[in-house]
């Protein structure tokens, strides 16, 4: 649909309505006046300060001349800002007030001051204001009258590679290339750097599969990296050396762009891009006319045949059609992104909308949903009996840790069931008129009306979410999930014998069970617990029911099931080449390319084995990294939101370079979104 609409707009209105041109600050300045401030809306990755400073220098306005002042607003900056505005309005000059959203209580005073000083203001007076747009759950942070009096600039970084690449390349010129002592090497590296900058900006649109957070990569990062590139290439040339690729990759990946990144897996993705794009193959070798393929169908051109304008033309004419593979992602990433965007759109519409027409109404929906949930709500687990049964087992080295895990899960389930039962009972009484309606009951009604798990709204006083597990499911799927989790605990606590395979996704704290595996193995082998970690092996058992009835626990480990994979798939049945016995389990297979439209297929039963940490493994914040060519370290998350829902590191076999799976965002998930 988006592709069809883009083509229609291009043919009817022109490409400028589809491809975003680089921002033109001089043209914006022509529309300003001493009586008309300029208001910049701040977006991630966009900093308007350099645009204003560079234009000011061209017009003779600078800090050195005493005619430009840049103030980052914060506590205690009100009086200095007011004094500068008054002085420049009288004598001429530019003032830039950054991050005014942090001073929303002071902005009305600024508005009144501007109204006063603009009468008879100096012809060279200009006021520039920047602020972030308010969040979805917060109110306006800027007076409407101030916004109406300003020229508003919303220069959000485009999501497509071509527009980003055009904007990035436009930051430089032929004179910048000519200033390098090795212009051909500099051109090739600079173009690859611009490509890198473009794809890490565009990758944001794929949500958590792209980046777990919306990092504020900006043009300043690109410009500073280009300065570093110039210095290092010139210094290497003076020393008679080649391009210092390793140094450049480290500075770009760990310091410049890496300085924005807080998630370890995102840092790995960032460094993988640089490892693939910053290497000697950028320049053609031998009789080849093109160098390294930056993306499918888009090779790095021969720098000896193109000047600055030639590269700009190359972008305009040779850039392939936008698609996820240009980012290193699978085409399914686009499907997932569009599906998620549509779901978020309709979720927002539903949350903003009122009751529908026709018979019945929202009240009938709430009553029917409440009755259904109360009818299906399981009874609390009998902790007195379970504790009595557990007492003699806690001292057994092979059972104690698993029993502790089961007890913790049962107690958390009972707390959640108690909260759900009480809130639904209060709602029933409130609707019957026997109990006063409280804010918590009102919030519960609002959640039931839009089929949302109560408490997911951070302002809700109905606290189901607080006592639950991380999830993105709507109300009824998550409620069914809770009943299934209760069923696993009921079966587990009948004898407190650990199941041959545990539905890991069905635990409140899955890491507790994984730690139990390490504890049991450490006690059995006499190893130190802090010298152990886990590794994973995919079995040939499709699900827990496929495990042979006479099977026992595998060596130094346990079976888990219920996981899904995003960004790749794992083979089943006849697809598994040469399965073999390992630790008492039948294992085999390796990572394969995803099938189209299979966004998150399940994986087989997983054999989690406790192992001793090897000296060659690198300790990190997310686990021990093996750095082995045929093992891809896959993060395991509870939900597709990734980020804070990370649980542990899984080791998956691969026969292709593991950088491929890093760029596709391959990870294991404990649950789907529906």
Automatic annotation (TrEMBL):
Residues 186-333 form the Dynein heavy chain AAA lid domain. One of its GO terms (molecular function) is dynein intermediate chain binding. Pfam families: AAA_lid_11, Dynein_C, Dynein_heavy. GO terms for cellular component: dynein complex. Residues 34-153 form the Dynein heavy chain region D6 P-loop domain. Residues 340-670 form the Dynein heavy chain C-terminal domain. GO terms for biological process: microtubule-based movement. InterPro entries: AAA_lid_11, AAA_lid_11_sf, DHC, Dynein_C, Dynein_C_barrel, Dynein_heavy_D6_P-loop, P-loop_NTPase. PANTHER family: DYNEIN HEAVY CHAIN (PTHR45703), DYNEINS HEAVY CHAIN (PTHR45703:SF8). This is Dynein heavy chain region D6 P-loop domain-containing protein. It comes from Pelagomonas calceolata.
């Amino acid at each position: 649909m988006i592709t069809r609409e883009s083509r229609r707009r291009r043919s009817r209105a022109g490409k400028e309505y589809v491809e975003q041109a680089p921002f033109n600050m001089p043209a914006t300045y022509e529309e300003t006046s001493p009586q008309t401030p300029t208001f910049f809306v701040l977006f991630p990755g966009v900093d308007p300060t350099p645009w204003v400073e560079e234009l000011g220098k061209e017009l003779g306005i600078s800090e050195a001349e005493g005619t430009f002042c840049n103030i980052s607003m914060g506590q205690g900056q009100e009086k200095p800002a007011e004094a500068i505005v008054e002085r420049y309005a009288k004598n001429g000059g530019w003032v830039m007030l950054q991050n005014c959203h942090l001073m929303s209580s002071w902005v009305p005073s600024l508005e009144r001051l501007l109204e006063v000083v603009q009468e008879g203001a100096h012809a060279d007076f200009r006021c520039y204001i920047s602020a972030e747009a308010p969040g979805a759950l917060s109110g306006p942070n800027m007076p409407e009258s101030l916004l109406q009096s300003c020229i508003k600039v919303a220069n959000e970084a485009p999501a497509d590679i071509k527009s980003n690449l055009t904007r990035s390349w436009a930051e430089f010129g032929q004179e910048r290339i000519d200033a390098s002592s090795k212009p051909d090497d500099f051109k090739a590296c600079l173009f690859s750097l611009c490509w890198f900058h473009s794809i890490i900006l565009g990758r944001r649109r794929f949500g958590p599969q792209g980046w777990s957070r919306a990092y504020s990569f900006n043009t300043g990062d690109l410009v500073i990296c280009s300065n570093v590139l110039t210095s290092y290439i010139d210094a290497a040339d003076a020393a008679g050396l080649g391009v210092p690729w390793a140094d450049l990759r480290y500075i770009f990946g760990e310091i410049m762009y890496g300085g924005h990144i807080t998630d370890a897996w995102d840092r790995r993705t960032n460094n993988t891009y640089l490892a693939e794009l910053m290497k000697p193959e950028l320049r053609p070798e031998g009789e080849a006319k093109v160098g390294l393929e930056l993306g499918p169908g888009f090779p790095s051109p021969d720098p000896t045949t193109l000047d600055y304008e030639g590269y700009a033309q190359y972008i305009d004419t040779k850039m392939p059609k936008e698609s996820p593979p240009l980012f290193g992602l699978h085409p399914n990433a686009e499907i997932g992104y569009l599906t998620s965007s549509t779901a978020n759109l309709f979720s927002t519409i539903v949350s903003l909308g009122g009751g529908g027409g026709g018979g019945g109404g929202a009240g009938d929906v709430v009553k029917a949903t409440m009755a259904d949930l109360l009818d299906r709500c399981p009874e609390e687990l009998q902790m007195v009996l379970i504790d009595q049964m557990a007492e003699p087992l806690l001292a057994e080295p092979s059972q104690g840790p698993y029993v502790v895990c089961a007890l913790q899960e049962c107690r958390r389930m009972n707390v959640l069931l108690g909260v759900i039962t009480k809130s639904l009972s209060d709602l029933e009484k409130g609707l019957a008129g026997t109990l006063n309606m409280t804010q918590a009951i009102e919030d519960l009604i609002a959640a039931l009306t839009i089929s949302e798990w109560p408490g997911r709204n951070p302002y809700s006083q109905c606290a189901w979410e607080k006592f639950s597990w991380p999830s993105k499911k709507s109300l009824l799927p998550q409620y069914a999930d809770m009943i299934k989790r209760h069923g696993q605990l009921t079966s587990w606590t009948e004898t407190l014998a650990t199941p041959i395979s545990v539905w890991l996704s069905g635990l409140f704290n899955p890491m507790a069970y994984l730690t139990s595996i390490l504890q049991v193995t450490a006690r059995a082998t006499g190893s130190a617990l802090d010298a152990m970690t886990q590794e994973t092996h995919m079995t040939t058992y499709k699900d827990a029911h496929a495990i042979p009835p006479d099977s026992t626990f595998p060596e130094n480990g346990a079976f888990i099931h219920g996981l899904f994979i995003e960004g790749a798939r794992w083979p089943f049945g006849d697809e598994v080449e040469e399965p073999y016995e390992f630790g008492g389990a039948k294992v085999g297979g390796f990572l394969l390319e995803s099938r189209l439209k299979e966004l998150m297929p399940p994986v087989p039963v997983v054999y989690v084995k406790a192992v001793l940490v090897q000296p060659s493994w690198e300790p990190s914040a997310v686990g021990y990294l093996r750095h082995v060519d045929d093992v891809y370290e896959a993060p395991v998350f509870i939900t597709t939101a990734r980020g804070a829902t990370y649980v542990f590191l899984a080791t998956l076999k691969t026969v292709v370079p593991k950088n491929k799976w890093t760029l596709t965002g391959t990870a294991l998930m404990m649950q789907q979104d529906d």
